[in-house]
Amino acid sequence: MPRIDSFLKLGLAQGCSDIHLAVGLPPMLRMNGDLLPIKFREITDTELEGYVVEILTEGQKEHFGVGDDLDFSYVSEEGSRFRVNLFHKDTGVGAVFRHIPSVVPTLEQLNVPPILNDFCDFHQGMVLVTGSTGTGKSTTLAAMINHLNATRSLNIISLEDPIEYVHPSKNSQVIQRELGTHLRSFADGVRSAMREDPDVILVGELRDAETITMAMTAAETGHLVLGTLHTTGAVKTIDRIIDALPGELREQTKSFLSHSLKAVVTQALVKTPDGRGRRAVMEILVNTRAISKLITSDQTHQIPAQLQTGSDLGMQTMDQALLEAIEKKEIDPDDAFRYANDKKLFQRFVTDTGILPKLDMANT
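Above: the chain's sequence. Below: its structure in token form.
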């Protein structure tokens, strides 16, 4: 058994989401959003390299050996699955293992707004799930693929970096392809997918202009495209896509977004009141004629007002979602305060008043 499995087994026994290994530090566990060390000595450079090498293929060793970061999936001898990132830093090697549950969750199990089920019923266009790193975007998308797989007869092509949740084909055919293993880039993967009679294409990350352009083409030509961006709001998502493409394509991009962008879901993971878990809280944009007009007229800054008044269509701002979750006692008010945009709305809920001046100073 690879020696690194012992750390992974310990982390899973503690219920953590991530296991961090770095030279000069003891192993650390991500527990409900907090990073905590375990009782173990500091890991040396040679020691950690030895652990890592045991689980790499020859191709991965060569790739990592020239100084590049490495993303891949790893299955321990006990059958637990992890998304792994290996990297180099000033003191040596570092590694992060994110646990991927073996059972794909349903949208109902994630307790997400019901409107996400409706997004799975689109036959073409683009639906984006956004948020910062570690906010559960991949899990939400996996649940959406699971819903499509169970309820419709489709050809679903998922392009991932790396493959996380494994989807056995049910009513649909699910083809999962991994960056670096089955395809050279997301853009190449989308280009190839469009020749493979797809109904749905999942793009793990819209990380560059070429990938965004190919995803837009797929969405405009009769396919449902699901994708992610590391953006923290609907407006920032739209602006990021427009700014990512060359200036001469600006009008074309705005036209695409106004017609083919169906929805944007931005999520954060907020601690539950008992501190023993986290719940996804979501800002939701559903594209309407009014929002389309704001996009084409360069008035995206007015979109939040549309979200605030669009509850009958399933829309909500992040602040509205946080307030509702607080009132239902589903999340910790102090943690919600940290994620709020208009923090004044949340000050009356805060129990740890010590966080008020700290965060006020940080935002001045």
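Residues 120 and 148 are 6 Å apart (CA to CA).
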